[in-house]
Specification:
Layout (H helix, E strand, L loop, with lengths): L5 E6 L17 H18 L3 E6 L19 H4 L7 E5 L10 H7 L4 E7 L1 H12 L5 E10 L3 E3 L2 E3 L1 H15 L2 E3 L1 H10 L8 H13 L2
Parallel strand pairs: 1-2, 1-4, 2-3, 4-5, 5-8
Antiparallel strand pairs: 6-7
């Protein structure tokens, strides 16, 4: 078994997600933020490189204006920053588009990217799904990410449904999904996280549906 060469990518742990219409609802940020901090601490202890990503919509935008408080990283993250961290500002959902993150990952010989942060229903989903196109394995920490309630002309989904459904989807094909403690144990052991696949998930899903 090959030891993963990991990087921890902190996706948009910005102040905008801690109040207002984009406030993370499930798991509540009061629960997910401590696990994000724990993942950072575990990465530092293991010598895993860390990248901090922030989303911008440009000056004057109603949200993600880089000149406002909402753009800033949460103090629990900012206080842990070291000079070795990679800082990334992005304009798209995925952390890879329009940034030099991939080049930094290549420079550090990373083959496995661990995603924490916000939101499960947007930037975590987009980034984890794209990772395989760059030859990277993706990991998503279930308790160190979070979603919001969503409603539009297509329907309504509460944050818990959004979060748990998307993590199930990701684990079926795009990423290994686990909680932070399980990931930390895998880091200490130098092991990859267990994964599933679409075929297994489909068969198990059919069986569960048949059980009513």
């Amino acid at each position: 078994m090959t030891t993963p060469r990991r990087a921890l990518v902190l996706v948009d742990v910005q102040q905008v997600y801690f109040d207002g219409p984009l406030e993370i609802q499930y798991p509540p940020h009061t629960e997910s933020l401590p696990w994000i901090a724990a993942a950072i601490d575990a990465a530092h202890a293991a010598g895993i490189p860390v990248a901090a990503v922030q989303h911008t919509a440009g000056e004057g935008a109603p949200v993600f204006d880089p000149t406002t408080h909402g753009f800033e990283l949460h103090p629990e993250v900012e206080s842990r920053r070291t000079d070795a961290w990679k800082s990334v500002v992005k304009e798209y959902g995925t952390v890879f588009a329009g940034t030099d993150l991939l080049a930094w990952l290549r420079e550090h010989q990373v083959d496995t990217v661990t995603f924490v942060g916000y939101m499960t229903n947007n930037c975590i989903l987009a980034s984890a799904a794209e990772a395989e196109t760059h030859g990277l394995a993706a990991e998503v920490l279930s308790d160190a990410t979070g979603a919001i309630n969503i409603a539009n002309d297509a329907g309504f989904a509460d944050a818990k449904t959004v979060h748990t459904t998307l993590l199930t989807l990701l684990h079926s094909n795009f990423a290994a999904v686990a909680d932070t403690m399980t990931w930390s144990d895998a880091v200490t052991a130098g092991e990859p996280l267990p994964t599933s696949d679409l075929g297994t998930s489909a068969v198990t899903g059919a069986q569960r549906a048949a059980q009513g």
